[in-house]
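Q: Could you predict the 3D structure of Enolase C-terminal domain-like protein?
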Amino acid sequence: MQLRPEHVELTAQRQSLRLIETVRSARGERNSVDTCMVTLAHGGLVAYGEGTPTGYDGVSADDVVDAVRAEGPAVIGDDLSDPERVLDRVERWDAPAGARMALDGALHDWIGKAAGLPTWKLWGAPRRLGPTVYTIGIADPDEAAAAVRHAPAVGAFKVKVGGSDDLATLEAIRKVTTRTVRVDANEAWDLATARALTPRLRRLGIQMIEQPFPTDALDDYHRYREFPDRLPVFLDEGCTDAASVLAAQAYADGVVVKLCKAGGIRGARRVMEAARQAGLEAMLSCMCESELAISQVAQLAPWADHIDLDGHLYLRDVPFRGLGLEEGWIVLGDAPGLGVVPTR
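A: Sure. Here are the predicted structure tokens for Enolase C-terminal domain-like protein:
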């Protein structure tokens, strides 16, 4: 007689995470973020995954939760004896990327727990990753300089730009730190702004710029590429998955890889592989997320050219613990699976 596989229990809920302070970017300001937390129980093991909406594609955390609740159990099935096949189904699932990210994360957590090993050790990867960055939101020069002085010990800073005091703010930041500085415009600049600021940004030692122009302003990207001594351009909103990498090759120097865009660890790894084949650099990044989501994406950090994983450092509410930060480097948890545990 063939025994029926043990049932897989899957639950999903929306969770609001309060931030330690208001975060401002060219897209607006926020004091909290909503995310989807998934729990997967099977074989006496309880695993966790987090899925985050990007916030600019019209998909909400409720949409992510609804997709997981409605279709997640069928996608996962009742047999995890071959988890790679289950991950294949999750990757092919026609659902919001945040929903795929949540299930993908929970499955990777479960695989590590079933093996009794942290995911990084299961993959033969290093535990210390970095250096990582800390993001400074749009602020006046004095506020930005103070934020840098009081920031965690990181290896670099990313500064949100698109406000009226961009140059003055960056000059104030440069006065209080010699560390690497990047800027992120979130589509707020036009070509004239970029041309006017680039020589001054070069003198300030700015390393690169993320998404300077709107995603559909392709002519601006191509024309800026011809600008003498331009800044390297990395696409975030303009490059979401592996299929969009090929087009980026013509007008960018790198792509920003996020699990919430690519649909989880599997999808993000494909974006990174596509970027390498296209001759583009890959910057691994995140949203404001808990240590669970950051642990999911951090597993890929050894294969990234740049690491921008600081989303958990802005949270007042901490639903998971396990990540460390030492001298600007992220230290993955040593618990089986993704290495983090619930705080309650």
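Q: Anything worth pointing out?
A: Residues 97-115 form the longest helix (19 residues).
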